[in-house]
Amino acid sequence: MPSRTQLAITSEWESLDWLASARALVEWIDAIDLKNPIALVVRHSHRATLADYKQMVTGGLTELGKRTSFELGSRLPTKRSGSVFTSFVPRCAETAECMRKGFTDAGGSASAIESLDTLFGPEYSEEKVWENLQPDGRNVTEFVNKWADGRLGDGIEPFDSFQSRLRTDIVSRLTASRDSAMHIHVTHDLSLMSLKRSILRRPLTRVDREPYLGGIALARTGSGVSLFAGITGQSVNLKVDPQK
Length: 244
Fold this sequence. Notes:
single chain; eight-stranded mixed β-sheet; 8 helices; 39% helix; globular
């Protein structure tokens, strides 16, 4: 019989509105045949509100964030072999650690967690570029659109350059994967939203912003890549060139 604590965690998973995207991602992944490897790219879990740029780099998870990260990991299909990648920032690293523990406690097998620079964000030479992004990320879709359109100046890595690196880390690895592989990526609003804009090839709206633990899932198919966006429930088949 489940413990009272486990029942409470299950209740959180099923009732919290901001977990709707995560729940949809799990349901979509469960329906993908094991012969199709997948890549999951999610925003970190619940954190305290960030007040400034320094906290953007140092902020960690709340206890709720840790519990829900573990729960998401425990609900991923354990018949798949897992690899976990993360940004080095505490809230992402903690999310990745909790997800990996949830996955392995449920019977899954996952490799050691690897840090990827692209999951932190683009390279930049001028901190003033971040004046365009609210510390709590509420305007991240507008920021990504300005960046993609070249309106942030030379103080930040060009959008196309960053996308080439990010897609190499995520999409190229997926297209080269063996059957049943599952690559889990934990990142921030910025990398996730820029990847979504790049793959969908359209400007973002505020509706596109993923909540905590929300994101996108990609599955390699015979004709290319199938993408599912959790927050909108959008599923599309794409002819994906990892470099474009």
